[in-house]
Design a protein that fits this description.
74 residues; 4 helices; Non-ribosomal Peptide Synthetase Peptidyl Carrier Protein, Chain A; 0% strand; mainly alpha
Length: 74
């Protein structure tokens, strides 16, 4: 399922515990991800799912759930 894959990537990228990541987790507020973290995360997600994430989509990712829903809709 995409949530587990995405959670694993987020945890590895931001060096956080899986228990800290839920669908409602806010990337910036809860995980202190800055814009560089989000770009790195997008690159990792693109590699994992073999798709390109457009900049306008990346800008709309506020929560982990936003990312999961994006990849479920592909």
């Amino acid at each position: 399922m995409p949530f587990e894959q995405i959670r694993d990537i987020i945890c590895k990228q931001l060096e956080i515990d899986e228990a800290d990541v839920t669908m409602d987790t806010n990337l910036k507020e809860d995980l202190d991800a800055d814009s560089l973290d989000l770009v790195d995360l997008a690159i990792s997600l693109e590699d994992e799912f073999e798709v390109e994430v457009p900049d306008n989509a990346l800008e709309q990712f506020e929560t982990v759930g936003d990312i999961v829903r994006y990849f479920e809709e592909l």
